[in-house]
Amino acid sequence: MAPIISMKGVIKRFGQFQALRGIDLEVTEGEVLCIIGPSGSGKSTLIRCINLLETYEVGAVVVDGILVQEDQSLQAVRREVGMVFQSFNLFPHLSVLRNVMLAPMRVRGLTMLEAQKRALELLNRVGITEQADKYPAQLSGGQQQRVAIARALAMEPKVLLFDEPTSALDPEMVGEVLDVMRSLAQTGVTMIVVTHEMGFARQVGDRVLFMDGGLIVETGTPEKIFDAPQEERTRNFLKAILQH
Amino acid sequence: MRLIDTFFNARVFIETLPLLWTGLLVTIELGVFSIVLGLVLGLGLALLRLYGPRFLQILARLYIDLFRSVPLLVLLIVIYYALPFVGIRLSPFAAATTALTTVSGAYTAEIFRAGIEAIPRGQFEASMALGLSWRQMMIDIILPQAVKVVIPPLTNNCINVMKDTALASVVAMPDLLKQATQAQALAANPTPLISAAVIYILILWPLVLLVSRFEKKMKVGTR
Ligand SMILES: Nc1ncnc2c1ncn2[C@@H]1O[C@H](COP(=O)(O)OP(=O)(O)O)[C@@H](O)[C@H]1O
Ligand SMILES: [Mg+2]
């Protein structure tokens, strides 16, 4: 089966600095890939190259058979690739319900009623039904992030990208977001999750990828990466993490 | 008593009131026209300056800087008295609206730009990641938030445009000030002028208070 995402030789520079130093990666449909690695290693940059929130100098990314580039096809790619951000990025001037309804109406052409029905179902699924008419600022961080997940899901994307979705949350709210993501993983949607939650990566990930210095250092099953890492750098990173 | 008879003469006031009223209508018409057109022009210029092709960005910037530098009175006189030499003859109303809109557009462009730039990157990224087109992103997400941020400075600009309409009297525009000066000449008494000043204040004071309220609210909001 052809991979749903394929990155070939992607190099990303910020000025002189190389944030990605040649990334080759294939993700198969339905896979849950967890990306771990120290801060500044290029994890965010990597997943942002997939939907071209970050442009790159060298290399190519293909999503679902479409080359990702700055032309008419870009919106077609972005329709199929949902993204959940560390800082939620909900639209503060729209109610929770409207946040979830907007893109399906504008981009997928759903009617107001269809979009509302879908939004209510999804809000129910992430446990936010009660707050549908509130505004994002009235919600807790955990609730906001669950709305953000519902907003991404409303587009029925083939791929979901998560960029440290629990890093901005108070500790007591991490669990509720991870629970939603865990149940998502069982639906068969392809997920790429940048995370510092090693427990989640181990339990939910089909595959774990360790990055350092803009390179993929090592990738394999959670057992392989967490219990028998091959690379010195992976071992040092895990040791440092586990000491906390 | 002589002072009151001179400056606040009731008989003169009542006699010239109809004249002042027609002047006031012209002033309001001129102000509202110029404000609305200036808002449209300003938004267009701000978008060009931020997102247009390179050379249009430079042109927009040039326009904005140029028309914030030129005195409005000078521009108005150029439009009304100099343009006829190249065959462009505008009515007083058209000349005044053109001058006011041209300058107000430059100021509102900068206000809108500041508003758009105040919207966090994450809002743009979330919109793009959802597959919204640039146009949809602007209309549904960015501009509604940006406009909310800039309502106080926009109101301030409205006040300025309203005040500046008085300059139109120099191109024989029968606005409030022009009618007041004429009434003064007819009545040989300055009461109409005083009345005009009071009317300007009565229109603009509420707007000034509104801006102060906004500013207070902002201070509370940001703490
Ligand atoms: N907009 C930017 N401008 C300059 N440097 C950047 C920018 N974004 C990221 N970087 C740099 O690129 C590197 C990788 O960043 P990032 O992908 O955010 O790392 P991670 O998500 O793994 O913490 C870091 O060293 C960071 O400082
Ligand atoms: Mg990051």
Describe the structure.
The complex is a heterodimer of chains A (244) and B (223). Chain A is an alpha/beta fold and 244 residues long. Chain A is built from 9 helices and 10 strands. Chain A has a 6-stranded mixed β-sheet with strand order 6-7-8-3-9-10, with helices on both faces. In chain A, strands 2-1-4-5 form a 4-stranded antiparallel β-sheet, covered by helices on one side. The longest helix of chain A is centred in the C-terminal third of the chain and has 15 residues, at 171-185. Chain A is globular. Chain B is mostly helical and 223 residues long. Chain B has one domain (18-222): MetI-like (MetI-like fold), CATH 1.10.3720.10. In chain B, 83% of the residues lie in helices and 0% in strands. Chain B contains 9 helices and no strands. Chain B has helices at 2-7, 10-51, 54-69, 72-82, 92-117, 121-129, 134-164, 176-187, 191-222. The N and C termini of chain B lie far apart (52 Å). The relative contact order of chain B is 0.16. The mean pLDDT of chain B is 93. The chains are: A alpha/beta (244), B mainly alpha (223). At the A-B interface, helix 2, strand 6 and helix 3 of A face helix 6 and helix 7 of B. The complex binds adenosine-5'-diphosphate and magnesium ion (MG).
Radius of gyration of chain A: 18 Å
Ligands and ions found: adenosine-5'-diphosphate, magnesium ion
Number of domains of chain B: 1
Low-pLDDT parts of chain A are: none
- CATH architecture descriptor name of chain B: Orthogonal Bundle
**Percentage beta strand of chain B:** under 5%
Major β-sheet annotation of chain A:
6 strands, mixed
- Cα distance, first to last residue of chain A? 41 Å
Strand line-up across the major sheet of chain A: 6-7-8-3-9-10
Going by helix content, strand content and strand pairing, the class of chain A is: alpha/beta
**Total number of beta strands of chain B:** 0
Major interchain interface with per-chain residue totals: A-B, 23 and 17 residues
Pairing-aware structural class of the strands and helices of chain B? mainly alpha
- Span from first to last CA of chain B? 52 Å
Which residues of chain B form runs of ≥5 with pLDDT under 50?
none
What's the CATH class of chain B, please?
Answer: Mainly Alpha
Main beta sheet of chain B = none
